[in-house]
Specification:
About 60% of the residues lie in helices and about 15% in strands. By secondary structure, it is α+β, with helices and mostly antiparallel strands. Helix 1 (about 1-30) packs antiparallel against helix 6. The chain is rod-shaped.
C-alpha cells in the first residue's frame, strides 16, 4: 500500500511540474497578446506557440466566440474548446490548469463530427486557461467593460510518462479491489469458522451423550441384576 501510494505521488509530482511549467509559458504568451488586435491574433499566437514549444493554443472570448486557433497537428481541424465545467471554473477562479485524459476529448470530437470513436490508449494532456489582460481605451472611455479574452494552451504528456502513470493508477485500483475483497473473505472465513465451531461443539455433545449411554448401559444392567439377587 505504501509503495503504490508513493508511486502515485511521484506521478502526480511529475505532472504538477509539467503543469506549472506550462502555466508559466501560457501566462507569458498571454502577456505578449495583451495589445494584439483580433485581426492579427492568428499570426501572433502561431508565432508565440512555435517559439514557446506548445502543441495547441486557442483564444476565445467570455461569450464563447472563437478568436484564433493554432496547433502543431496538421490533421486537427476542429479546436478543442473548453468543456462546460472549465468555463464554470473560469467564472469563479479566473484560471484553470489540470491534467486530463485524451479519451474524453476523443469522445467529444466524435460526437461533433459523427466519426467513429478511436481509442486513445490512456493518453494524457495538460490544459491551461489564463485571461488575457487587455487595455481598451475606447471602451474604458465610454464606461463599458470589454469582453474578456482567454488563452487556452494544451500540451500532450509524453507517452511513456502517461503510460506509467496509468499503469500505477490501474495497479493501485486493482490493489484496492483486492483489499476490499480480502476484507470480505476474512468476514466469510470468520463466519464459516464460527459455524464449523458450533457444529463441532454440537456434534461432540451428541457423541458424548451417545458414548455415555453405551458406557452406562452395562452398569445399569449390573445394578438391576444385583438388586434382583438381593
Amino acid at each position: 500500500d505504501t509503495a503504490l501510494e508513493a508511486g502515485l505521488n511521484l506521478g502526480r509530482a511529475a505532472l504538477d511540474n509539467q503543469l506549472n511549467d506550462l502555466n508559466g509559458r501560457a501566462r507569458d504568451i498571454a502577456t505578449k497578446l495583451a495589445n494584439i488586435s483580433d485581426a492579427d491574433m492568428a499570426s501572433a499566437i502561431t508565432r508565440l506557440r512555435e517559439s514557446s514549444g506548445v502543441a495547441e493554443t486557442l483564444v476565445f472570448t467570455g461569450t464563447g466566440r472563437l478568436v484564433a486557433f493554432s496547433t502543431a497537428s496538421y490533421s486537427q481541424w476542429i479546436p478543442d474548446v473548453p468543456p462546460p465545467h472549465v468555463l464554470n471554473q473560469l467564472r469563479v477562479s479566473r484560471n484553470y490548469s489540470a491534467a486530463e485524459a485524451d479519451d474524453a476529448v476523443a469522445r467529444s470530437t466524435d460526437k461533433e463530427t459523427g466519426a467513429e470513436p478511436q481509442s486513445a490508449a490512456g493518453g494524457l494532456h495538460l490544459r491551461v486557461v489564463v485571461p488575457i489582460s487587455m487595455i481598451d481605451r475606447a471602451s474604458s472611455a465610454l464606461g463599458v467593460s470589454p469582453d474578456t479574452r482567454w488563452l487556452q494552451v494544451i500540451q500532450p504528456v509524453p507517452e511513456q510518462i502517461a503510460r506509467n502513470a496509468n499503469q500505477v493508477q490501474q495497479g493501485f485500483g486493482d490493489y484496492q479491489e483486492l483489499a476490499l475483497s480480502r476484507q470480505g473473505l476474512r468476514k466469510l472465513y470468520s463466519i464459516t469458522l464460527t459455524l464449523a465451531l458450533v457444529l463441532a461443539v454440537f456434534a461432540s455433545i451428541v457423541a458424548a451423550l451417545a458414548l455415555s449411554r453405551r458406557l452406562v448401559r452395562p452398569l445399569l444392567t449390573l445394578a438391576a441384576g444385583t438388586q434382583a439377587v438381593g
